[in-house]
Specification:
Layout: E1 2-5, H1 17-28, E2 34-37, E3 51-53, H2 65-73, H3 87-103, H4 105-114, H5 116-130, H6 135-150, H7 156-174, H8 187-201, H9 208-214, H10 217-229, H11 235-271, H12 278-299
Subcellular location: Mitochondrion outer membrane
GO biological process, one term: mitochondrion organization
Protein name: CBN-MTX-1 protein
Amino acid sequence: MELHIWPADFGLPTIDVASLQFLACSKMCASPVRVVHSSRPWRSPNGEFPMVSQTDGDAKPVTDFEKFVDILKKCGQDVVIDADLTSIERAQLDAFSSYLHHNLYPAVLHTFWVDELNYNTVTQYWYASQLHFPYNSYYLEKRKKKALRILAGKTGTEVIRDAFMALNTLSTKLGDNKFFCGNKPTSLDALVFGYLAPLNRVPMPSDRLQVQLSAYPNLCRFVESVSSIYCPVTSDELKQTESIRQVILSRVSKAKIDQEAIRVATATADAIPDEPPIRDAILFGIGAVALSLMFAIHTGLIQITVEEEIAE
């Protein structure tokens, strides 16, 4: 069985949310899955990664997380994912997974694919560098449109607000524990890791959600723990991704500087009152003089005497 995912970067085996979820889940149950880093998503049935290709018979490739979890449960390895959960705990896990999909996932999409500053600075550049032209333009447009469809009807403020609440809920549920459901990792841990790890590691110029995540030390520790235990990155992978990482860091730094310069310029412009145009000032002055003269004549301050000429 092979798991095809996007390439590694920023100290993660991949920065793609779904790819991280598949990978983490397979590693948590020590499944003998061969991981293939690829930049050819067109080989997947839905044109996306991750994709699990099975070698048994005519089995179709799997791209759905729940179906992948079912496959892992039947693989026969010593560690079976979610095996120790009671029926009540399974129901709670399903409910929590649905909650995160509706409240946290949209914000992750917004951060990477909808926020124009982040998209133009990081997302577009990273994926374009992984894919050849002109397919990279087609793929990026397709992914962006998909994200916009998912977020249709929601404002950016609403999406971020829901995500803030989801992070708080996650932090409360995790507490001081290592995992979310007892002493062993479950498929929920894999899902949460996939959502949080890119936010924790990939720099963004517009980083409200990332700053909020950093306010929860237990969630940050969870990401680091799962990353080091189940999803470590080799030294070769770190070297291979160093150049693009430095380019993106430079782009993010420049974007933040430009953003601050725009903010300062806007604030300065708002603080300086607008000067009236010269034409308006002249007309106002003439009108004021005319009104003053009319008032003076009316009140008798200025008298106009008309003398008739006497004919001889």
